[in-house]
Amino acid sequence: MFQKIGKAARDRLAKLGIHTPFGLLLHLPLRYQDETHLYPVADAPIGQVVQLEGRVTHASVTYKPRKMLTVKLQDGSGALQLRFLHFYPSQAATLTPGVKVRVLGELRHGFFGAEMVHPQYRIVKEDEPLAEALTPVYPTTQGLGQGTLRKLISQALAGADLCDTLPDALRMPLRLPDFASSISLLHQPSPDISPAALDERNHPAWQRVIFDELLAQQLSMRLHYQKRRARGAPPLPPRQQLGAALLECLPFPLTAAQQRVCAEISADLARTHPMQRLLQGDVGSGKTVVAALAACQAIENDFQAAIMAPTEILAEQHYLKLSAWLEPLGITVAWLSGSLGKKDKRAALERVVSGEAQLAIGTHALFQEQVEFRQLGLAIIDEQHRFGVHQRLALRQKGGEIHQLMMSATPIPRTLSMSYYADLDVSVIDQLPPGRTPIVTKLVDSARRDEIIARIRDACVQGRQAYWVCPLIEESEALQLKTALETFELLSQTFPELSIGLVHGRLPSQEKAATMARFKTGEIQLLVATTVIEVGVDVPNASLMVIEHAERFGLSQLHQLRGRVGRGATQSTCILLFQSPLSETARARLRIIYENTDGFEVARQDLALRGPGEFLGARQSGVAMLRFADLERDQALLDQARTIADRMLAEYPELAEQHLTRWLGQQQEFLKV
Ligand code: ADP
Ligand code: MG
Fold first, then answer.
1. Which of 12, 491, 548, 605 is the most buried (most CB within 10 A)?
2. Atom of ligand 1 nearest to the CA of 291
């Protein structure tokens, strides 16, 4: 059927993403129009979209105040005026007195009585029949009219094999209608369906389509998950040596949440297929020690472990912390820094290849380039949300035959983790270590910047430490750098008595590391920084943070930054300086961060504000987004789709495959990289 469509129309369909007859069937109406009813002009409700019919009594083109075609209609009950600002001369020519016209539009009450501006209209014969049912209105593109689309879709409907991919035994308990009738109802509603019934997505026919879309996504993700389980990996069972020794040396006991996730990871590592687990935990919840314990389990099985971080600062911090923890236990840690000299780097790489180093730590970039292991058993990816969706998916799909632990402080709301992360196992640390005092967040207008600067100085003089975060300037890194330098100069000149440091992305990593170390020991009191300190930096004594132009940052970024303070026992404060006037959305975002300290809640509200596409940062990455389903609204259906997907794969594998092919075509991956 598709071959018979002309090239021009086919190109336009392609623009709408339609390439097959089934694609046409899934091109569902945006809304419906009620053309089943004619109102007398005198009784028609004002302010609503209504259909009326009358004879032209007068038509004229006027030029003041601007060119306009005015047409007067009379239907026996009253008069109606139509106004067109854009029209063709041919249009004006056909609307001559005596002609019968049927119009559909919003009825208003104008100066000259009832009127419609730019209604849809057509010239009709005597006793032209009314539509019997609602008329679908489709999303379309230039050059492809509603009429053509309707015709093509009804042809596709006539020729389609709409057999159900959901077996009755699974469908009945869900109380969902069958697929064929749902699709035809949405394209060609029967006469008894009222206009309001299909507007909301809770009509059973819509529910069925939404369910099928979610089911396709779940099937694709679960299939991925199963494929991975079919691959082999070295089992790394707990031998209770290194981990127990590490726990004994730590100055704190694990929280209950840390113990729980450690047990989950430990059990995964013991299995004969590769672990792919996402460890979620709010900023400061203590993920590093969990990573260290996982590494210990790999090492006590004579395998190597690797920890990758998105930035040098973070990688170095991990190196310092983990070597302090693990070297006393006899573990050799290799530090793979971009800033190492050629010779040192070669030596470090050598120790990894030979197996002398049991743990390697570095940035992800470095690992990708050149590191070879003697026998790698576990890869740990810290702050995985910092990697682009693209890299993240690549990492996930590459995975191979090693165990992977991904850690993230950007909490992923449940609906998202159930859909886009459904191929991963997830562990959550839902508790902070004891003794933390909640951070106080303040919103302050930039007009009061000087006042804030003075307050920061007083606090530093009294022995506290502070971060001053410079504004994010997305368009220009150079400009961002300039601002950071200027702020540093200004603060240094104003307060010669303070020891002030500066870190930014362009600094050589050695210098960056040295500055961070001096901040950590307390030698530097005030650290001026760009967002390089966003993730992971852990200096418990710092209890004050100022973020300039907070309105320019994303919410998860603000939450991450704020998480740099509040790590010790002292009361911490985060001051968000904003530039007024604030836009509506900026105001809404700042309110969320001001009112919430729980990262999950911030993420949930962020998702509600932005939608999953932007939240995932997936706009350009080609992640196939859901067309009909809305994860917030359709949570109940998502839960059902998840359960049914597992059952389909187990009990009806052929139907599962058919369903996937139908919805995703040959490309059976919901996540396209
Ligand atoms: P994140 O989850 O953000 O990576 P970290 O692993 O950096 O958090 O931990 C934050 C701080 O909390 C560190 O100083 C760490 O040593 C400390 N910490 C971790 N677990 C505990 C615990 N169970 N009790 C007390 N402090 C802990
Ligand atoms: Mg961390």
1. 548
2. 6
